[in-house]
Amino acid sequence: MSRKRSRSRRLALQALYQWQVTGDDLGEIVNHFLTENRDGKFEVDYFRDLVHGVPARLDELDGALKDHLDRPVEEVDLVERALLRLGTYELLAHPEVPYRVVINEAVELAKTFGAEQSHRYINGVLDKVARQLRPAETASRRRV
Question: Which of 33, 80, 81, 120 has the fewest Cβ atoms surrounding its Cβ within 10 A?
Answer without folding.
Answer: 120
